[in-house]
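Homework help board

Subject: predicted structure for assignment chain

Our instructor gave us this sequence and asked us to write out the predicted structure in token form, then describe one feature. I got the tokens but I'm not sure how to describe them. Can anyone check?
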Amino acid sequence: MSHPTIDLFWSFRSPYSYLATPGALAIAKDYQVEVRLRPVLPLAIRQPDFFSEENVKRAKYILVDWEREAEMLGMPHAWPSPDPIVQDIQTFTIADEQPYIFRLTCLGVEAQRRGRGIEFAAEVSRLIFGGTKDWHQGSHMANAAERAGLDLGEMEGAIREPTSHRDEIDANQVALEKAGHWGVPTFVFDNEPFFGQDRIATLRWRLDKLNARR
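My token output:
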């Protein structure tokens, strides 16, 4: 018998997506539901004009806020080195060449196709936002994939021609907007969106009302 599905719209450049991963894993463990990772590109890539003067203020706040949230949750934290988006952190100008974010997002799609989406997201985001310098080099990514129950080499082979993966990313972005939101992380259960890692408790409350615990 298939279980109800919770879609998790998620970005490899979002520190709040990173902070949501323990909660997502706990929901999959505690409830009779499938948590399906639906990776999207960061808003800054989807909307190149995102960093208006007003949004720069918000971005500067996020740089402060996410670290204290991570500390409160007992999660390792440091701004990524390198950043998954090539961007001047002072001016917030985004570079034309982006060597990391498209690969990461396609790998996220492939991980979900192999049934280990949130596990892969949790392990890789812990690398990126947990203080691992040069997370993209050496065996860091391969080891993270292995901890998630996946083989990075096989996944890299699967995304070598990434047309279907990119199409799926585009479809995820459309589905996120259709669900009534634009940001990440957003959980969607039974057409109801729950935006932010601080709404996981609300989602659990909703599931408890439905007696969905294992």
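Reply (TA_rk): Your tokens look well-formed. For the description, you could write something like this. Residues 5-209 form a domain with the Glutaredoxin fold (CATH 3.40.30.10). That's the kind of observation they're looking for.
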